[in-house]
Specification:
eight-stranded mixed sheet; six-stranded antiparallel sheet
Length: 297
């Protein structure tokens, strides 16, 4: 009897943990994408904003469970069909303009708002979180031989105050670039295997073998590797700070293979998804960030 009680308590703890960890997918359609920016120039791979945006408003509230975002309605000028997706040298066409990206929502969490913005032949995303957490992602199936690096520009408009990725109850970041990988799940600890099974039961998706997140942290050393407090299969790599850089475009280019080995002490497997995420649910913060094209090379 005591054994059953302990097992029941353990299962309850795991399920409670999953409410802040697991994700379910929403791919419904939203019709209002009338968000524009006056002028954005590209200089040496970075983005320089020269005037303010004119932002259209969503008809639904940001905490609606029916939030949608019709990314396929990007203007013809940005249509990725203009690019060949066959050659590895044009790998960037898979992700650069946010075509066919989808929402990934977290059970019990209010959703972050993501808006598609047209900016002088470039598609941008404006992410706004208000005590919320959800992700925008692109599903992939890329062999490690077919990718090497990732680059992206971002600009924090309003930082997530009190966010601290080293503490579970404050684990938020104004900017996250999220890479999920496949691998041999027989290597997992028993706890992670159970979490994955319960995640699939609750959301229809198991946990990826490993998730590498590029994040911001004001108190952390540059390139510090930080383990997620809930599972060892999610690890953060610090690529910058929010404080002191609000309103300024920043740029990263990272070697995915080197960063994965540094974070997980093994080579990466198949890249199964790429995402961006702005969240303020744990620290109860409001935060807003612009994302430039995410490019794989």
């Amino acid at each position: 009897m005591q054994y059953l009680k302990r097992m029941s308590l353990w299962c309850f703890i795991i399920i409670f943990t999953l409410l802040g960890l697991s994700a379910c997918v929403s791919t419904t359609t939203y019709n209002n994408t009338d968000t524009v920016i006056k002028k954005v120039d590209v200089k040496q791979g970075d983005l320089q904003e020269e005037s303010s945006e004119l932002s259209g408003q969503f008809n639904e509230s940001e905490n609606s469970t029916n939030q949608t975002f019709n990314i396929t309605q990007a203007p013809t000028a940005f249509n990725l069909s203009l690019y060949s997706q066959q050659a590895a040298t044009q790998l960037s066409s898979l992700t650069a303009n946010f075509k066919d990206w989808e929402f990934q929502n977290f059970p019990g969490k209010k959703q972050t708002r993501y808006e598609l913005v047209q900016a002088k032949q470039i598609n941008l995303i404006k992410a706004t979180a208000n005590s919320s957490a959800s992700m925008l992602r692109k599903r992939l199936a890329l062999d490690p031989k077919n990718y090497q690096s990732v680059k992206m520009a971002w600009k924090v408009v309003e930082k997530a105050k009190n966010a601290q990725i080293t503490q579970a109850h404050l684990d938020d970041s104004s900017m996250r670039l999220v890479l999920a990988f496949d691998g041999d799940k027989n290597k997992w600890a028993a706890k992670d295997a159970v979490l994955s099974e319960l995640s699939e039961l609750l959301t229809g998706e198991p946990m990826p073998y490993a998730t590498l997140m590029y994040v911001l942290c004001d108190e952390c050393p540059f390139e510090a590797v930080i383990h997620n407090q809930k599972t060892s299969r999610i690890r953060y790599l610090v690529v910058g700070k929010a404080t002191g850089f609000e309103g300024k475009w920043q740029f990263l280019k990272r070697n995915i293979h080197e960063d994965f080995v540094k974070s997980f002490q093994e080579p990466p497997g198949e890249l199964v998804s790429l995402g961006i995420m702005t969240d303020g649910d744990n620290s109860k913060a409001s935060t807003s960030t612009w994302y430039g094209p995410v490019v794989l090379e």
